[in-house]
Structures are given as structure tokens and as C-alpha cells.
Design brief:
Layout (H helix, E strand, L loop, with lengths): L9 H13 L3 H14 L1 H11 L8 H10 L9
Helix pairs in contact: 1-2, 1-4, 2-3, 3-4
């Protein structure tokens, strides 16, 4: 996968992210996370919280999608 992910909509990126993660395409996942974090402070906060939790077993795509669905939750999970 290549190209300019910044030109895609947030919805398009959210569809690509779990596929890239499933395919273990780390470069694409990293780029998409960066673009989404730039666009949305809730995603940025959720990713920071996820990165600081060494016991986190939630996939990165779930963390990102939950932050977008639940603004203001700062990535908190049950």
C-alpha cells in the first residue's frame, strides 16, 4: 500500500486501519495512526494512554476506533 493517506477521509482511514493491522502492515498502520491523531485529539490521547500501558492487550485499531466513536473518553476501556 502506498499513496497519500492524508487525502483520505477519516471514515476511509478507519476502514483501512483494521485491514492493515490484520495484514501486519506496520508502516501503513503507523501512517494512518499519525494522520488520525493529527485530525482528532481524542485519538491522540487514546494512543498516548495505550502506549503507556504495558499490559494493554487491545489492538491499536480498536483503540483508535473507540476514541472516534466516544469523543472525550481519552481511550478509557472497560
Amino acid at each position: 500500500m502506498g499513496g497519500d493517506y492524508g487525502s483520505l477521509t477519516t471514515d476511509e482511514l478507519c476502514k483501512i486501519l483494521p485491514i492493515a493491522e490484520d495484514e501486519q502492515d506496520g508502516a501503513t498502520v503507523h501512517i494512518i495512526m499519525g494522520v488520525l491523531a493529527e485530525r482528532n485529539s481524542d485519538v491522540k490521547q487514546a494512543l498516548a494512554k495505550w502506549a503507556l500501558d504495558p499490559g494493554a492487550n487491545t489492538s491499536i485499531s480498536v483503540v483508535v476506533l473507540e476514541a472516534l466513536k466516544n469523543p472525550g473518553s481519552s481511550g478509557s476501556s472497560s
